[in-house]
Write a structure and sequence with these properties.
Elements (H helix, E strand, L loop, with lengths): L1 H16 L12 H18 L2 H11 L4 H6 L1 H15 L4 H36 L1
């Protein structure tokens, strides 16, 4: 929904107003519209699965909150690069995608800490 209702209008507006030369006209077809929006929406949808992936990896024991905090600066770089790939070459669209992804990364850290706390509690009960 975020990709379709928030990013797609900026994308369509950007490409509709983008003009290389006065002699070159933008002609949108239904195929070009879908070719633009489908990767954008699917990419955004996949990126928004980050907390679920981190939750699973935390439950398995592969990821810890300390590790996620340690690699935060690299994660921010990757998030900005991913946002640049799934959005059109427009800074506003890239920022609009980057901010929620950064927020989702922070939620992932919180979820991982919660899972770790539950694991510690279960281990204490077994003892």
């Amino acid at each position: 929904m975020f990709g379709y209702f928030v990013i797609a209008p900026y994308t369509v507006n950007f490409f509709a107003s983008f003009q290389i030369d006065e002699n070159v006209k933008n002609q949108w077809t239904l195929a070009s519209y879908f070719d633009t929006l489908i990767p954008l929406i699917l990419g955004t949808g996949l990126a928004f699965q980050l907390p679920m992936v981190v939750l699973f990896l935390s439950k398995v024991g592969i990821v810890t909150p300390a590790y996620l905090k340690k690699i935060r600066k690299y994660a921010i770089l990757v998030i900005v690069i991913v946002a640049g790939v799934i959005t059109p070459p427009d800074v506003v669209s890239q920022i609009i995608v980057s901010i929620p992804l950064l927020f989702l990364y922070e939620i992932s850290i919180w979820l991982s800490a919660r899972v770790q706390k539950e694991q510690i509690k279960k281990d204490a009960e077994w003892s």
